[in-house]
Fold this protein.
Amino acid sequence: MSDVARVAGVSVMTVSNVVNGRPRVSAETRLRVLEVVADLGYEVNLTAKRLRAGRTGTVALVVPRFDHPYFGELAGRFATLLGEKGLHLAVEQSGASREGELSAVSHARLHMYDGVILSVVGLHYDDVDRLRTDLPIVLLGEQVVPERFDHVMMANVEGARLATAHLLERGSRRVAMAGGTPSGPSTGASELRSEGWRAAHRDAGLEPPEDLLVPMPDLEAATAHRVVAEALARARERGALPDAVFAVTDQVSLGVRAALHDAGLRVPQDVRLIGFDDLGLVQHVPPGLSSVDPHNGWIVERATDLLLSRIAGSTEPPQHLVAPASIAARASTA
Amino acid sequence: MSDVARVAGVSVMTVSNVVNGRPRVSAETRLRVLEVVADLGYEVNLTAKRLRAGRTGTVALVVPRFDHPYFGELAGRFATLLGEKGLHLAVEQSGASREGELSAVSHARLHMYDGVILSVVGLHYDDVDRLRTDLPIVLLGEQVVPERFDHVMMANVEGARLATAHLLERGSRRVAMAGGTPSGPSTGASELRSEGWRAAHRDAGLEPPEDLLVPMPDLEAATAHRVVAEALARARERGALPDAVFAVTDQVSLGVRAALHDAGLRVPQDVRLIGFDDLGLVQHVPPGLSSVDPHNGWIVERATDLLLSRIAGSTEPPQHLVAPASIAARASTA
DNA sequence: ATGAAAGCGCTAACAT
DNA sequence: ATGTTAGCGCTTTCAT
């Protein structure tokens, strides 16, 4: 910038004014400066600008993994919405581990950003509680989190209840839950959604068939494929196949679909199937997979609003929002 | 930092030395400073550190869209590898448009990063040629790009040739190409892969059946689903159904799979199907979709090596690398 | 309409 | 082992 100033015969301040389109610069000075800028190929140094401004114009989204379609869809929505508000999105990966997430939210790292949207999969309550809050943070995800943070989550119980009721209404009577968890403290998506599965059974006057919960070590499609294949083999031996499956996520639903195919079971004729997340791709997986629509658009809008108002200095009490949920019915539950 | 220095009764330089773990600080001074740091909750300001250092420790990956599984998988691999090298990855979305990509690679934006890996979908040769090169940039993608850039691409022609040959070897004789392009300048993935499809036919002594190319306005699964459904309906009227489909990408393959299902055609009994990219999810889409494995691991390693050596100041002539390709054979081509 | 001075938080280089 | 000086590139404030 000082080079430009020297060559153009003006002060750096005038260059700054021209480059930033501020008024009070004569047309001819502006022109001359612009010429020199082009000649010298000058470009602002954002790092310096930010040091001075004390803000970065960039928001971070920290997700457990880049390679899960759910987070890809989420990131796309955030990028679009933030772009409209003149902010930039950088996506970081926390690695789905406590360590990764803790390091991803270390203030050292995050001071690069004006605010952070953090998907808290893998962080425990105490870890979140330990986070300093002098940086605007909005939490996403199905964990229970400390009161003092803004938090937007899905309607886990209600969505699962809707999905299970959807199956029961269509006449299914042995509704398995892939990725379900035996009763326990309600601390994550799997637990909450299992509660919804139980609630739907009770609403229908049925005892929740706990033997049809199929727990999994993780919620990858490959894991679901393997675990459900084994569960189906055992159920078949006992002559006790399910007639429907509620999968805790669409990734799991995909694995279940594959396992059912391998077992020679037709969807929906032999077994109905519904997932959770409504990933764009599940409508293209034969025969078209039903899913719980978690209203990601709503989640992204609310999270963005909360973050922006915190960045603007809002000291409102922290909010804890739950998105609506609805059923995207497709052929797999027809 | 100066607050810490004052309270601890030392100079800011000593604080800097302690905080950065540099030697030549007495144990007791170090201890005292660390205590004050904890008391005051001091954290380094990375922006200032970077302004001073002139480098950011962060590399950007610019992808067309966050919500395409291929880029999610790619980003995950880059993040892991760069993490091992002590660098941080931020992913940016260009929006798959010329404008988006140009703004994403504007120097103003990119000066935040030590280097950039840019996926050039949507950029024309001239646009790329206009990029300044005082920042290390490695190009990814199937476009033809100016010589002066490092570039890593897939084996498009060879991969498509392998896929098509794989189908022909298994006895298919009417191999359609979903997302194929009638002969023309070889400027993108679709064109190059169509060339491979032609080459395999010629290798087998067959005339490429140009009427079995099914062009598409974009390569979304939904588009493929619709376009292929229409093409199948027309083909059926003429009694000229294909007995195999090579899909230009796995996203397209997914759409083709759905269209085949809707048309009552079985995979692989009535129609064999193979895609390109080997996304993790296609092995779980019934009956398990074959695909061309583009060796993403190789691509990511090479691109990272190139970028890091440029960042380190290498002035080697620019490299243009082509990854190996192989067939991941699954039930859809059995 | 333009400019000079000061300083954002940090560290390399050079004292002591 | 510790401190002083200078400056990274920019903008805010206060002249002129």
About this structure: Chain B touches chain A through 49 residues (CB under 8 Å). Chain B has a mean pLDDT of 90.
